[in-house]
Amino acid sequence: MTHGTSELAERVAFITGGATGLGLEMAKTFGRRGARLVLASRSEAHLESGAHLLRSEGIEVLTLPLDVRDARKVRAAVRCAYDHFGALDILVNNAAGNFIRPAERLPEKAFANIVDIVVNGTFYASRAAASFMRDQGRGVILNIVATYAWTGGPGTVHSATAKAGVLAMTRTLAVEWAAQGIRVVALAPGAMETPGASARLWPSKEFEERVRQRVPLGRFARLGEVADAAAYLVSDRAEYITGECLTIDGGAWLGRGVLDVAPGEAIPKVTRRRDGPPDAE
Ligand code: NAP
Question: If 0-12 CB within 10 Å is exposed, 13-18 middle and 19+ buried, where does residue 192 land?
């Protein structure tokens, strides 16, 4: 193997939705640092192509077809991963669904479905993994959220609500499970160009450009840099971090002040008036 570092050597990482987009990038990054991977998602085609790519780099991988909405199957998959590798060190709750729809036109079923994948799926997988991590006396659970968990996100009430739930779950379980050696952390990436996001979140090139222009650092997040941040959070270098959410979004969620200054825009000169409120020039 020609992996750059071995900071995750021999660690077993179970990644839901690990065969596409950010999930696959994290699998690659963890694998290059020595981890053995479990990819779990619904599509056999995704699993096959993801595993093929990892194996071509000499990374050990187990694929498990799984719908995270089914608690019993989640428990069985986690057990199968543990039995296969004899350990379970890292769980990444990355599986999600998202699309843009105004709340008044969002079918109740669609709202429930996203909450089911993101909130329930994260809970089922976390609890199943924790039962093995507890016996090992150590483990890390990394939840992939998004900044609209705390800013809100018009057009994505289903996903924003679900991610907010996962953030609360992160902080809650971090405290409940700390004494058992289990850390629970979150990562909130900004807009990334993954096939899933590009197809469903920005409907045209113009919208894509608008998204980009809102980012103070002037670009989308790169999958590789987000996966690097994830690798740090699940490594021993972050062993004193729990219950925390790392945002990696180029400053996109931050406020623009009372004058609503856009990234790159000059801050207007404000002269102090003696007889009233200041004028903006
Ligand atoms: P993606 O490629 O569409 O990833 C979603 C993954 O979830 C897919 O691999 C999918 O695999 C899996 N999945 C969906 N429903 C599932 C279910 N019921 N059971 C098991 N697996 C399921 O999108 P992405 O952009 O890489 O997103 C990855 C994570 O980053 C998500 O948590 C997303 O919310 C978060 N995020 C993305 C962005 C962005 O701009 N892209 C920004 C902030 C946060 P199958 O189809 O094989 O089931």
Answer: buried
What Rg do the C-alpha atoms of the chain give, in angstroms?
A: 20
Domain ranges of the chain: 12-280
- Please report which residue ranges of the chain form alpha helices under DSSP H: 21-32, 44-55, 71-85, 108-115, 121-136, 148-151, 157-178, 195-200, 205-213, 223-234
- What is the distance between the alpha carbons of residues 247 and 235, in angstroms, rounded to a whole number? 17
pLDDT attached to residue 73: 98
Atom number, ligand 1, closest to the C-alpha of residue 116:
18
- Atom number in ligand 1 closest to CA 197: 41
Binding pocket residue ranges, ligand 1, CB within 6 Å: 16-17, 19-23, 41-43, 46, 66-69, 94-98, 117, 144, 146, 189, 191-192, 194, 196-197
**Splitting the chain (281 residues) into consecutive groups of 10 residues, what average pLDDT does each group show?**
75 98 98 98 98 98 98 98 98 96 98 98 99 98 98 97 98 98 98 82 85 93 97 98 98 92 87 72 58
Known active-site residue 82: no
DSSP state for residue 83 in the 8-state scheme: H
* Architecture of the domain defined by 12-280: 3-Layer(aba) Sandwich (3.40)
What is the length of the chain? 281
